[in-house]
C-alpha cells in the first residue's frame, strides 16, 4: 500500500535537502566537462564511502591538500544534487502513471531514503571542514632547480621518435597547458608585411576561460630564422608544409610520458618533471627577456597577479632561453590592484585646513 501523504512528505523533504546544498545557481555555470568530471569523482567517492569506517566524512577529508578537499566537496555536492533531481523526476513519473507501478515507486522511495542519509553525512562533513594537517603544495617551478640549461632540448631529443614529440615541442615553445594541446595548437609559417620578416606562429585556444578569467585565444610568434635548437627542430617538421596542427588525446597520458622520459634522463633528480614544468620554464624565460604583461598574455591569463606563481627570471638560462617576437591575446591584462599604505589611508580621513 502506497501512502500518498508519506510520498509527498518525502518529496518535499528531498527538495529542502537540495535547496540546503548551497546555491544551485552555481551548477548552471559548470561546463559539460566539469559536470562529467564531478559525476565520475562523486560516484567514486560514494563507492569508497560504503567501505570506509567513517563513511562520507572519511573519504572527503582523507587528504592533506585543501584544494583536493574542496574539489571533493564540490564534486560530491553536484553528484548528490544531480542524483536527487533524477530520483525526484522518476518518482513524479511513476506516481502520475496509470496504473501506478507500485514496485517502481517503492524502489525509488528506498533510493531517496538512502540518498537522504548520505546527504546528512555529507552536510556534517561539510560543516566540519578539512580535518587533516595542511600540507603546503609544492610548486612545479621548484622542479626546475638542478636541471641542465638545455633540459628541454634533451627532453625533446629523447622523445623525438615517439608519439608525443610534436606536443612536447609545442609545450616547450609556448608554455601552453596540456588541456590546450588536447584542443589542438595550430602552427603556421607566415610572412609579416609590417616587419617584412618571416614568422612561425602558434595559435592557441585557451583553457580555464570564464566570464572574467583567462584568454580565449592567444598568439605567440618567433622569428622564422631564430637559431634556438627547439625552433630548428620545428623548422624541420615544417619543411614541406606551411601549417601543422598539433594535438593530444589525453593530457594525463601526455604528462605520464614526460615523467617517464625525464626519469630516464635524470634518475637522481629530486622532483617529478611534468608538462607544467615546460610551462614554468617558458614563463621564466619571458620574465627575463619580455615585458611583464607579455608573460600573462603568453600564459593565457587575464589578470596580472597570476603570473607570480610561474617561473622566475633567475631560472632562465642565458644560452637556452626562448625569446618570442610577438605575443598577443584577445583580452587586455587586468593590473594587480595597488595596496594603499596605511598611513595614507588614515590621513585621507583627516579634515583639510
Automatic annotation (TrEMBL):
Q: Where is this region: Disordered?
A: 334-353
Which InterPro entries does the entry link to?
A: DNA_brk_join_enz (IPR011010), Integrase-like_cat_sf (IPR013762)
Keyword Ubl conjugation present in the record's keywords: the answer is: no
Q: Please name the GO terms of the biological process aspect recorded for this protein, alphabetically.
A: DNA integration; DNA recombination
User: Which superkingdom does the taxonomy of this entry point to?
Assistant: Bacteria
Question: A GO molecular function for this record?
Answer: DNA binding
What keywords does the record list, in alphabetical order? DNA recombination
Name of the featured protein: Phage integrase family
Amino acid at each position: 500500500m502506497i501512502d500518498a501523504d508519506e510520498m509527498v512528505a518525502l518529496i518535499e523533504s528531498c527538495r529542502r535537502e537540495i535547496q540546503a546544498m548551497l546555491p544551485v545557481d552555481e551548477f548552471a555555470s559548470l561546463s559539460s566537462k566539469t559536470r562529467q568530471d564531478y559525476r565520475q569523482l562523486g560516484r567514486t567517492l560514494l563507492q569508497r564511502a560504503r567501505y570506509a569506517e567513517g563513511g562520507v566524512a572519511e573519504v572527503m577529508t582523507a587528504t592533506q591538500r585543501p584544494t583536493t578537499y574542496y574539489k571533493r566537496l564540490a564534486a560530491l555536492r553536484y553528484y548528490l544534487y544531480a542524483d536527487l533531481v533524477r530520483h525526484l523526476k522518476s518518482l513524479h513519473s511513476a506516481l502520475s502513471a496509470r496504473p501506478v507501478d507500485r514496485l517502481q515507486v517503492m524502489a525509488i522511495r528506498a533510493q531517496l531514503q538512502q540518498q537522504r542519509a548520505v546527504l546528512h553525512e555529507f552536510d556534517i562533513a561539510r560543516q566540519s571542514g578539512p580535518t587533516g594537517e595542511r600540507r603546503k603544495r609544492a610548486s612545479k617551478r621548484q622542479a626546475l632547480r638542478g636541471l641542465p640549461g638545455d633540459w628541454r632540448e634533451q627532453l625533446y631529443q629523447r622523445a623525438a621518435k615517439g608519439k608525443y614529440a610534436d606536443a612536447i615541442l609545442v609545450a616547450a615553445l609556448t608554455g601552453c597547458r596540456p588541456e590546450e594541446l588536447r584542443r589542438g595548437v595550430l602552427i603556421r609559417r607566415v610572412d609579416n608585411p609590417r616587419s617584412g620578416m618571416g614568422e612561425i606562429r602558434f595559435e592557441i585556444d585557451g583553457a580555464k576561460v570564464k566570464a572574467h578569467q583567462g584568454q580565449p585565444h592567444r598568439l605567440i610568434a618567433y622569428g622564422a630564422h631564430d637559431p634556438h635548437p627547439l625552433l630548428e627542430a620545428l623548422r624541420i617538421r615544417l619543411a614541406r608544409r606551411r601549417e601543422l596542427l598539433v594535438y593530444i588525446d589525453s593530457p594525463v597520458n601526455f604528462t605520464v610520458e614526460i615523467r617517464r622520459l625525464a626519469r630516464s634522463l635524470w634518475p637522481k633528480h629530486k622532483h617529478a618533471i611534468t608538462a607544467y614544468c615546460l610551462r614554468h620554464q617558458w614563463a621564466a624565460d619571458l620574465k627575463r627577456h619580455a615585458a611583464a604583461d607579455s608573460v600573462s598574455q603568453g600564459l593565457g591569463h587575464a589578470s596580472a597577479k597570476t603570473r607570480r606563481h610561474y617561473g622566475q627570471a633567475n631560472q632562465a638560462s642565458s644560452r637556452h632561453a626562448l625569446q618570442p617576437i610577438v605575443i598577443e591575446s584577445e583580452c587586455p591584462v587586468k593590473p594587480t590592484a595597488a595596496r594603499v599604505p596605511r598611513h595614507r589611508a588614515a590621513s585621507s580621513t583627516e579634515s583639510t585646513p
